[in-house]
Known about the structure:
The protein is α/β, with parallel strands linked by helices. Helices cover 45% and strands 14% of the residues. An eight-stranded parallel beta barrel has the order 1-2-3-4-5-6-7-8, surrounded by seven helices. It is globular, with a radius of gyration of 18 Å. The relative contact order is 0.13.
Amino acid sequence: MNFEQCFKESRTMLMEAALGERLKREYGLAIDGPVAMADLICHKTGKSALCKLWLEYLSIAEEYHLPFLATTPTRRANQTRVLSAGYDSALLYENVSLLKEIQSTAATPMFAGGLMGCKGDAYTGKGSLSAQEAYRFHAWQADVFARAGVDFLFAGIMPALEEAKGMAMAISDTGLPYIISFTITPDGRLIDNTTIDSAIRSIDQHVKRPPLCYMTNCVHPDILSRALSHDFNRTLNVQTRFLGIQANASPLTYEELDGSHDLKCSDPVSLAQSMIQAKRKFGLRILGGCCGTDGNHLREIAKSLGG
Length: 307
């Protein structure tokens, strides 16, 4: 069964929890270079740490018999950054290869995704691209992932409609299924002030092959619930197309979290309760964790889904 078939047939899919925060805090790894986490694959310690985290998350999906989604740690590994760091496309191939190795051990359906991100700041929208600029800028990474054999592509924390639209155009050309995940605020909008409903409509109408669905990551489910409850987002379009969240453990906003030196998080049970409430209210089908989450949070989410 391929990713698109599994998505259509599954009531719920479990997505990985945090990588970056855990790699820094639990393993003492530095991820502040040009490509962030993408070159951890080049070092024995980094590669081992990634494997341990993915295997931990996969084991939870297996325990609760849920399809599992994981993505390469390559949000910042666009062509400009990869080349400036002295690497080439082999860096992306190696990241996909490691994730595929994990996938080969899975006792539940597992899908390996290629993670992409905006050129500028995902939380302020600074440095975002026009649609045509984004199409040219992101095509290289999308094409490399397609050749490397990922199951799907994932555009993470996209703050601005135009860049998300251009990235969707580039991804659409690969023929791979894909998901666009927005950076959203409690007022129901992307960082560039576009409503969630308008953003979905615009991208769906603009690309040859629309995303499989839309979602958000790096935000608490309570903030998502507030965002989706605004009248302008209570549309059939949003109800049928906005279907997931990789949740922060903290209910604080981006502005409150930005630059924080200590880890902000809520306990696993309360996060899982908020996740399930959002799932029931808005029909979400992909649930996972982002900043501040670990295996304990993901286990409680999976347990709630099983219940």
